[in-house]
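Could you help me review a protein record that somebody else here produced? My question to you is simply how this chain folds and whether the tokens agree. Thanks in advance; the entry in question is below:
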Amino acid sequence: MDDSNGIEKPGKIIALHLNYPSRIAQRGRTPEQPSYFLKPATSVAASGSPIERPAGTELLAFEGEIALVIGTGGRHLSPEAGWDAVAGITAANDFGVYDLRWADKGSNLRSKGGDGFTPLGPVVITAAGLDPAALRVRTWVNGELVQDDTTADLVFPFGRLVADLSQLLTLEAGDVILTGTPAGSSVVVPGDTVEVEVDAPSAPGAPTTGRLVTPVVEGATPLAEYGARPKLDDIQRAEAWGSREAAGLPAPFVLDDALRADLASVGTATLSSQLRKRGYDAVSIDGVRTNQPGAHLVGTARTLRFVPFRPDLFASHGGGFNAQKRAFDTLDAGDVLVIDARGETGTGTVGDILAARAQQRGAAGIVTDGGIRDYATVAALGIPSFSAGPHPAVLGRRHVQWETDVTVACGGATGQPGDVIVGDDDGVLVIPPALVREVVADALEQEREERFIAEQVAAGASVDGLYPMNAEWKARYATWHE
């Protein structure tokens, strides 16, 4: 291969989602197997060619990558032979518009397939003699180094990627495989210039692709109404910028030990009154009771949803490592599993084995608006559980295990993953995370006031003017509180 000629337009461009440990740590999910998407050949651009940020969009993000250029190609290659099928490597920039991710359903066609969204070059380095685990990729934005990583610790080595793809696709000479981006990918705006360089610093002569230069310009033509229009949320902003902090978003809610202790110290009756003052009347999970009187439940919601029983659906979803088993097996310390059983009390939704698994994983509790099997045994485990009561029947009598970590309806209340769940002998509440700190602060103050009032009533005071307190009693309370 002539290193000076760059790369011609490929027949196929196949891009990998995640590969570098630094990027995987940012995303918070580790793939078990490589996953891919296709980019059109018309997205290829040469070094120096500008990329247009589509008019009306906000989040154009760069991803500096190593591109593999296939030489011999073929089918059914082994991982050991995969690297031998690579003729050369070059620099790539896998640009994407996060404003359009919602419309692609994972295909990335509109968000990453636009004209000029795959700059390649400027030089292709011959792969023969290079160590694929000793390559480096670096990216600069306006001259500042923002990505710097090597291929030493890739989750999916290059030979494996080539072999995996060749199981089902015929790889042809000139095809390009984009191999993932390291941490540091972020948003660029018109006027910025992005440069990507790939090299082999420890190889003889330290061959390099040179810098792949892409100026960013503003597009002039807005997206029309007959297609997907830009749409954003905080998730897309955080992923485009690389973190919530970089995107200027507030830090995610954390139910820390201090807040957990405050919630455990106040009753659900007090919390309920504070929520009602803020317009939240439908946040109690009705029809459930504790199987451990005196226990106090505080945790962060994870969810499990059942649908009504149907033989074919139970056959396809009820066996193996189904949604119910996955839900219990992936609980973390402090989680509360909230089960949407549609208020169906004529069967059990959890038994002693799954409850024991939840306890072993450190879960804070279980809430279901259905029944519990092995009721006494579950109660004896010590993990707080709330349900519509005991029932001996197995799950398949009325339910199909359907999905996890989605918005659910439990006992008339809407619950989402991440909501705060608080329960005691009076019942269970769902508290939106954004309200927790102010609600618990006011609840603590309310309970202090009510302790004072209770003391005065016990001493013989009339409730007239005391409950609620008039100005005179408020003054006495202030002195008492000091």
About this structure: The first helix runs from residue 21 to 27. The first strand starts at residue 13 and ends at 16.
